[in-house]
């Protein structure tokens, strides 16, 4: 069976010149950290959201180490290990850009690149997005927490107004999360991941196909309550346990669920193990979640 990972990253998405990491060789991909403990339990440990808040500094440290291992070499090896055919790769300008992913695509045919915009740099976003789509971008990524621009900011609306004509999906980070320690916290806005921002955005653009990243992470219940009624919303399953994915299936339907790992922050093998349990031998369901839904949403690959 083909497997498409709908949520992954290449390069350093947290620091300037993040694309330089992609081509590095021999970077250790192994990691055992506080996130690994959750992965060992398939993210099903009770009170995981409380643990995340209590162990915040340890989680951020683990995220940063995993981020530093997002080389193309590790990307391809973990894909091979999990039997993944292709992966949607998500940039976060200004740190990691579509141009960085475009260069990586010349070395690997497993990458499905999305584009993004640098909100901190005045430019003609419509022209930039059109060029990126012409050069192979298959969607748009927004990360309100790291980019510090909410989903209902006028700048976000300007970008979506320019991108909607391409009829390609827009994946936005969904959920309250942090990535920077100490004084660097000024470089993020975790609360912009709250689900009411997403609700207001998808309601404003009923003709745009949106993917709620991570299905809201620890705010998955809010995603179910606030986004489940919208026909233009899909969810990716990165970091969600078996039980929550089944709830998402009941709310969104089997055509709106996308397999995702959030590699390197999440384990591809853990995500695969969880989704295999969700499908329970239902081959038709597995075909949709592992690749069919993604292929319909992305069009010709």
SSE order and pairing:
Elements: E1 4-8, H1 34-40, H2 48-54, H3 56-67, H4 72-82, E2 86-89, H5 98-105, E3 111-113, H6 125-134, E4 140-142, H7 144-147, H8 154-163, E5 170-172, H9 195-204, E6 210-212, H10 220-227, E7 233-236, H11 242-252, E8 257-258, H12 268-279, H13 283-298
Parallel strand pairs: 1-2, 2-3, 4-5, 5-6, 6-7, 7-8
Helix pairs in contact: 6-8, 9-10, 11-12
What do these coordinates show?
The chain is of the alpha/beta class and 301 residues long. Helix content is 42%, strand content 9%. The chain is built from 13 helices and 8 strands. It has helices at residues 34-40, 48-54, 56-67, 72-82, 98-105, 125-134, 144-147, 154-163, 195-204, 220-227, 242-252, 268-279, 283-298; strands at residues 4-8, 86-89, 111-113, 140-142, 170-172, 210-212, 233-236, 257-258. The strands form 2 sheets. It has a 5-stranded parallel beta sheet. α5 links the parallel β2 and β3. α6 (125-134) runs parallel beside α8, α9 (195-204) packs parallel to α10 and α11 (242-252) packs across α12 (268-279). The model has no long low-confidence stretch (mean pLDDT 95).
What's this model, at a glance?
α6 runs parallel beside α8 (154-163) and α11 (242-252) crosses α12 (268-279). The protein has helices spanning 34-40, 48-54, 56-67, 72-82, 98-105, 125-134, 144-147, 154-163, 195-204, 220-227, 242-252, 268-279, 283-298, and strands spanning 4-8, 86-89, 111-113, 140-142, 170-172, 210-212, 233-236, 257-258. The protein has 301 residues and is α/β, with parallel strands linked by helices.
């Amino acid at each position: 069976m083909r497997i498409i990972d709908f949520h992954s990253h290449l390069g350093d998405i947290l620091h300037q010149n993040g694309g330089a990491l992609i081509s590095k060789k021999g970077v250790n991909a192994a990691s055992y950290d506080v996130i690994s403990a959750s992965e060992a339990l398939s993210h099903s440990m009770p009170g995981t959201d409380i643990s995340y808040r209590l162990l915040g500094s340890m989680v951020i440290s683990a995220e940063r180490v995993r981020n530093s291992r997002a080389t193309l070499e590790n990307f391809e090896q973990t894909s091979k290990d999990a039997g993944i055919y292709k992966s949607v790769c998500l940039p976060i300008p200004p740190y990691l850009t579509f141009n960085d992913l475009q260069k990586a695509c010349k070395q690997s045919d497993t990458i499905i690149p999305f584009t993004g915009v640098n909100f901190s740099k005045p430019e003609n976003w419509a022209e930039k997005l059109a060029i990126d789509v012409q050069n192979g971008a298959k969607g748009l990524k927004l990360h309100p927490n790291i980019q510090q621009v909410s989903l209902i900011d006028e700048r976000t609306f300007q970008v979506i107004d320019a991108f909607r004509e391409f009829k390609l999906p827009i994946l936005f980070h969904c959920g309250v999360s942090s990535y920077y320690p100490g004084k660097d916290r000024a470089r993020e806005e975790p609360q912009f991941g709250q689900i009411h921002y997403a609700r207001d955005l998808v309601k404003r653009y009923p003709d745009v196909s949106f993917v709620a990243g991570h299905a809201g992470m620890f705010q998955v219940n809010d995603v179910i309550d606030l986004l489940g009624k919208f026909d233009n919303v899909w969810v990716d399953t990165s970091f969600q346990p078996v039980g929550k994915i089944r709830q998402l299936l009941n709310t969104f339907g089997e055509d709106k669920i996308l397999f995702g790992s959030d590699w390197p922050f999440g384990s591809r093998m853990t995500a695969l193990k969880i989704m295999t349990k969700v499908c329970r031998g239902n081959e038709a369901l597995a075909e949709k979640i592992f690749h069919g839904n993604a292929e319909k949403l992305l069009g010709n690959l």
